[in-house]
Amino acid sequence: MHMNLFSKTSRLAGWLAVNVQADGISLAHVRRVPAALPVVEFVSFYPADKLSAAMTMERLAKESQAGRHHCIALLTAGEYQLLSVDAPNVPRGELKTAIRWRLKDMLDFHIDDATIDVLDVPVDKDAPIRTHSMYVVAAHNQTIRQRQGLFESAKIPLGVIDIPEMAQRNIAALLETDGRGLALLTFDESGGLLTMTFAGELYLARRIDITLRQLVQADDEQKNILYERIVLELQRSIDHFDRQYRFITLARLVLSAAGKAEFELQKYLAVQLYISVEVLVLEAVLDMSKAPQLRKPEDRHRFLLTVGAALRLEELAL
Prior knowledge:
The protein has about 325 residues and is α/β, with parallel strands linked by helices. The chain contains eight helices and 13 strands. The protein is globular and about 50 Å long.
């Protein structure tokens, strides 16, 4: 969902991602640096205004100088659907029309009310040509209009609307080992998100209906039940990935939750899975010297996907 809404005024390098969540709005500004780690220029969180999200947006627009940035809005779980479909055998220019026709029975709202975008899943270059998958992002037009309206009323220039799966893909791309696939599993207040990537491309995405709060607050008995559900979902997803993409070897699973819960889950998964399981070390792939909030595991989950969105590599459309 791309919109070239940029004016010609001078803008700061990098993207500013704005993530409107239930409990407030998180911001992250990231700048890519040649031959060095991407620099997180700042992250900040604005608790939800009791009056309205618009009031919070106006406040952050003033304090963060959002008008001087190239801005991304991040949709949250429940505001869009991500669907896997077989790529239609049509010319590129007719792709969206063909996809719309295919989606009409898959959405929980009418196709005429949908804004859609298409993410290609690359195929094995050495394999004989066969059908391949695509991910389709579909959001209700009203959701898109509301998000655009929130930015317009706060006079924040909105360039791109993105989704958490792609934000997580951007972080995974920094963590990947050359020639190997990577599984990244993150938990926040909206639940768990598993992505599998290779060469910076998203191949598989799954939601896990377990929130970070559940993991942190569970007693031992509840924890075992939650952990078993997570392992089952991971095993199914890894098996599916291995069958579907035989040309990719998954090197490891990287996990991000919070504090003690993160290390307990990592130990459990390391015993249950045949691939190596590590805790996310964000400072290994990002320069976070200007963003001390990211050093605290208990705060990091709040900003992780917002930082991921701001890592977007696409050239700025000026």
